[in-house]
Amino acid sequence: MDEILLTHPINPEELLWFLSRGFDDPIYSVRENSIFRAFLFADKKFLVKITPGTRSVKIEWLCGERTEENAAFVKSFISEWFDLEEDITSFYELLKADDRLSYMAEEFYGLKLVGMPDLFEALAWAIIGQQINLTFAYKIKRRLIEKYGDYINHDSSRYYIFPSPGTIAAADIEDLRKMQLSGSKTAYLKNIALAFIEGKIDKTILRSLPDSVSRRNLLTAQKGIGVWTANYVLMKSLRDQTAVPFGDAGLINALLNHGIIANKTELQDMHQLFERFKGWEAYLVFYLWRSLAPKPDNPLISIESN
After folding, report:
1. Angle, nearest 10°, between helix axes 134-148 and 119-128?
2. Would the pLDDT of 281 be above 60?
3. Span 187-203, pLDDT tens digits
4. ∠ at Cα 152 (165, 154), nearest 5°?
């Protein structure tokens, strides 16, 4: 059993609810107050059970060899996935200073920004989800992963690993179209996969750039990546706080619900709000998205502090 000890507490109930909020993500499964996820590292596959608590995250190895290198990789991935090292105290102070948003500091206390550490998965997911609803997007994601992803079988269940850029680049166009991917999305996915293979895009390259504008420009230079997609991916995969997906329908609805804007074309008040949250813009987006969903009420999720 491995364990990540937390300097800053998290909210495991909110985390588990977010990961199991009614959508069918084939990359992981949530049950028994835990998250089950398969990984591929150094050409080795393994499956772990991740159990979050308020003060630590426990990791149990279910399948595949545990090595010090594998364990370090998994700990790093989980820490990045759930933003475990971030101290969000100052974000809460900003929330409390706004009467319209102050309730979030209490209701969502300890909820960290759940990201997507795998940059290729984040880009592929953003492309799949363009201009369709989430339920349909998850169906397509499952079809893609079941067709092209590697997997581990354990206790009568199959745990998938997201396909590599090389696998998607080599995928048959007609097979992709049969998954109800449009012709343009099929071309975009293969184009992005080739960009990874050719070394035009990866997290090291993006992190080496001097600012958000440069990172966004590198991404939007690739066909299929617009400004919204670039901002979403920078927010979720690189945790770029300034990468706000303005124009996002969910974000606009949340701003309308809180009386921050009066109509969908009223941009000045929106930008003024984000100006007051400098350094925490992505977190503000995440919490506004969270506000659109009902409060968790799942009797199957009952967390003890650890």
Report:
1. 130
2. yes
3. 999 999 999 999 999 99
4. 160
**pLDDT tens digit string along 131-160?**
888 889 999 999 999 999 999 999 999 999
- C-beta separation of 125 from 132 below 8 A: no
pLDDT value at 301 more than 80: no
Tokens of 48: 């772990």
Q: Which residue has the tokens 């000890």?
A: 5
**Contact of 154 with 60, CB cutoff 8 Å:** no
Which are the contacts of 248, defined by CB distance < 8 A and separation ≥ 6? 228, 232, 285
Q: Report phi then psi at 6, rounded to 5.
A: -100, 130
Question: 107 phi and psi, to 5 degrees?
Answer: -65, -35
| pLDDT confidence of residue 263 | 85
The CA–CA distances, whole Å, from 129 to 56, 107, 133 equal 33, 29, 7
Is residue 183 classed as helix, strand or coil in its secondary structure?
Answer: helix
Task: Identify the three-state secondary structure at position 82.
Answer: coil
On whether the CB atoms of residues 271 and 242 are closer than 8 A, the answer is no
Helical H segments across the chain, by residue range = 12-19, 68-81, 89-96, 104-107, 119-128, 134-148, 165-169, 173-178, 183-197, 203-208, 212-220, 227-237, 249-257, 267-276, 281-291
How many CA atoms lie less than 13 Å away from 193 in the CB half-sphere? 18
Q: How far is CA 10 from CA 56, 86, 109, 198, in A?
A: 9, 10, 8, 39
Q: What is the largest CA-CA distance in the chain?
A: 56
Phi, psi of 57 (to 5 degrees): -125, 120
Look up residue 116 and give its DSSP letter. -
Report whether 147 contacts 179 (CB < 8 A). yes
